[in-house]
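hey
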């Protein structure tokens, strides 16, 4: 609850417009998520300015506005007039971010609850919530809102603090040096809890040791006679803590909790149990249980137990409250999945340690099959590649099937394959829909013994969208999954390299591919053209997407366009439409791509390259029926047959005659006369081949326009290009 008089006193703010409203239920900095009765704070960010949404906040029921004084000089006159006539309390300050910090520090001093600050690399929010839940059984306890834990979020959260609160349990995040010190200056903690130290947010830290020193700043910032509670199993904490303890031992208590010492650990799909031996508490044989899943959750339980005992609670009270504690959304939260699957929704965020613990939990829980779906792990700086490789190596020995979504996550797939997971059990995707679709196909039949599906990725990857598609009842998503507020539903998290960028909707590309496959039917294959980096859409991402949505072959203009696809792990057939010179033929054979031939001499050179490498290469012959670009001219039937006979002759010497095709020059025209002429010429060539029993398995002629409007041109395969990218192939 925010009282106007205290806000003005803390921030030295000025009233611009005042009405009878003198208290507000909370702060809100996002007009899309604002609830009636809240005070909207206009915050300037890197990509937007909250002052642009003042009128929107008023329309959504804001009881007040906190704005910067400078904005009054630049706002349009109609906006100023609307604000002045709004009958809403409006406060001006020099800087809204600083005003929030000033208010947070002031109100904690004014109402003086005992502040318990929780930080660490992983498990902060669950630990904060567990501590607050236990203390709430005996004390009026405030807990910081969700994971609002930085220099903006924590002060915003403290707008919900009330005078009645005896304890304030807050979470301190850290993504750059000095942030913990600044946060501690605001909250001045009495008790500090450090969960663990492992690589997270490494983009702004030189190394893990610098991060460790930053997190340990919490303990050096505790008030006199405060209490530092830490994980005695954590390597970095124990390595650096002795120096700090020597410095603070006269003014601070140090209380460890040691997960490795607990006994009788038992994990099910419903709970995790353990027994505390005598060294961990005064009463031997205490059993702790919570609905948290995974052995790593014992650290959360012990941290809450240690804090609660220090605050005077009896172990019976602690046991009872922990036994009621449920997993938070997006943090190894078990959900009912389609066809009897059990979904482990761990989509809140991802780091190397949390990925390791989630895989450990997946292995420990009973299941017939185990599937992991991983998005990118972000904000790891120079450690990013190593972290994804480690995740892949561990996944190889933990799961039966691995699905990845995203460019960095593809490294997990590559590492898993190198570590021994069979390639047919690994699926690399670029969209949420495709990742979910792979699992749906694996779960096509209901299992008598459930399949476990772990879903995890960094916040920006929005992997909860995969979870939603795999839930038995997706309508429950708003109450069960992370990032379900209106604000999150409307935004896409991006960090573009430049201030201008192009957004490619891969989901639309996937949908277009499926529609074309439905149109041509199961007997006709779909080859998608990826020329010119998929017409600027990104060949690798498009390739992965279309292959998951009905395409079975890819087309490129040159060998050099095919090479990156193969290097990225694309194993689907790739047809090179263009001319392959003799000096590139060995590379074409090495890459296992399909070559287009126009002349017997090229067939002979390709045969020699194939024999030199001891391989067989598939070839397609191209017939020019009227495009007048590449191919053997259809009217020169002798030359056409000479090429075909040479290819067939060389089938014992490294060549495989797989296909023949032509290209329609005017299929996008309303006048189909020329297209019909071309098809007639092509049919004549096919008739000649059939007479000699030489017609290959793949005959194709249809580009995007012909695929859509000329059914007789579809033959055995179609080659859509621009239609896949959402463009109408006909200008008429």
């Amino acid at each position: 609850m925010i009282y106007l008089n205290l806000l003005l006193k803390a921030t030295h703010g000025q009233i611009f417009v005042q009405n009878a409203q003198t208290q507000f239920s909370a702060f809100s900095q996002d007009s899309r998520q604002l609830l009636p009765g809240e005070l909207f704070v206009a915050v300037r960010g890197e990509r937007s300015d909250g002052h642009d949404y003042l009128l929107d906040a008023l329309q959504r029921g804001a009881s007040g506005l906190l704005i910067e004084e400078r904005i009054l000089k630049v706002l349009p006159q109609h906006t100023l007039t609307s604000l002045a006539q709004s009958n809403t309390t409006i406060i001006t300050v020099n800087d809204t971010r600083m005003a929030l910090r000033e208010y947070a520090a002031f109100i904690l001093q004014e109402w003086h609850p005992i502040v318990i600050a929780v930080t660490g690399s992983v498990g902060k929010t669950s630990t904060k919530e567990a501590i607050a839940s236990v203390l709430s059984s005996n004390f009026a306890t405030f807990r910081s809102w969700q994971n609002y834990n930085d220099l903006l979020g924590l002060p915003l959260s403290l707008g919900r603090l009330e005078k009645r609160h005896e304890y304030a349990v807050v979470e301190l995040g850290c993504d750059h040096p000095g942030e913990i010190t600044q946060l501690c200056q605001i909250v001045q903690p009495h008790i500090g809890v450090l969960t663990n130290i492992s690589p997270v947010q490494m983009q702004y830290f030189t190394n893990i040791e610098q991060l460790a020193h930053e997190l340990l700043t919490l303990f050096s910032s505790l008030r006199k006679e405060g209490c530092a509670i830490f994980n005695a199993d954590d390597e970095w904490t124990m390595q650096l803590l002795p120096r700090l303890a020597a410095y603070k031992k006269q003014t601070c208590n140090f209380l460890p909790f040691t997960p490795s010492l607990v006994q009788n650990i038992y994990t099910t799909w419903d709970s995790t149990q353990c027994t505390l031996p005598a060294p961990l508490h005064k009463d031997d044989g205490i059993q702790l249980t919570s609905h948290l899943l995974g052995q790593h959750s014992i650290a959360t339980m012990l941290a809450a137990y240690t804090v609660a005992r220090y605050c005077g609670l009896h172990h019976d009270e602690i046991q009872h409250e922990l036994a009621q504690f449920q997993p938070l959304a997006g943090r190894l939260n078990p959900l009912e999945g389609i066809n009897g699957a059990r979904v482990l929704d761990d989509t809140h965020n991802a780091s190397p340690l949390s990925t390791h613990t989630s895989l450990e939990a997946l292995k420990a829980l009973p299941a017939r099959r185990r599937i992991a779906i991983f998005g990118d792990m972000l904000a790891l700086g120079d450690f990013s590649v190593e972290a994804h490789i480690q995740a892949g190596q561990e996944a190889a020995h933990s799961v039966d099937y691995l699905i990845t979504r995203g460019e960095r996550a593809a490294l997990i797939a590559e590492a898993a394959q190198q570590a021994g997971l069979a390639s047919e059990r690994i699926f690399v995707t670029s969209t949420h829909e495709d990742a979910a679709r792979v699992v749906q196909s694996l779960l096509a039949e209901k299992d008598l013994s459930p399949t476990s599906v772990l879903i995890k990725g960094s916040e920006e990857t929005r992997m909860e969208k995969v979870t939603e598609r795999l839930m038995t009842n997706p309508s429950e998503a708003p109450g069960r999954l992370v990032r379900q507020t209106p604000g999150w539903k409307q935004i896409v998290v991006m960090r573009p390299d430049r201030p201008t960028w192009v957004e490619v909707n891969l989901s639309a590309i996937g949908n277009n591919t499926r529609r074309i496959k439905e149109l041509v039917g199961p007997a006709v294959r779909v080859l998608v053209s990826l020329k010119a980096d998929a017409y600027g859409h990104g060949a690798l991402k498009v390739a992965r997407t279309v292959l998951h949505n009905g395409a079975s072959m890819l087309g490129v203009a040159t060998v050099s366009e095919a090479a990156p696809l193969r290097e990225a792990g694309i194993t689907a057939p790739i047809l090179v439409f263009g001319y392959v010179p003799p000096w590139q033929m060995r590379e074409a054979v090495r890459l296992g791509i399909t070559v287009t031939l126009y002349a017997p001499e090229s067939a002979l050179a390709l045969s020699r390259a194939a024999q030199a490498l001891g391989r067989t290469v598939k070839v397609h012959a191209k017939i020019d029926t009227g495009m007048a670009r590449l191919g053997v001219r259809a009217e020169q039937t002798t030359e056409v047959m000479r090429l075909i006979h040479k290819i067939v002759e060389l089938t014992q010497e490294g060549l495989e005659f797989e296909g023949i095709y032509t290209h329609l020059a005017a299929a996008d025209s309303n006048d189909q006369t020329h297209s019909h002429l071309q098809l007639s010429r092509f049919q004549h060539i096919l008739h000649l081949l059939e007479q000699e029993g030489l017609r290959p398995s793949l005959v194709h002629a249809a580009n995007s326009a012909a695929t859509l409007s000329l059914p007789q041109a579809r033959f055995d395969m179609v080659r859509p290009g621009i239609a896949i990218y959402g463009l109408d192939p006909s200008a008429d």
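Residues 506-725 form a domain with the TIM Barrel fold (CATH 3.20.20.10). The radius of gyration is 32 Å.
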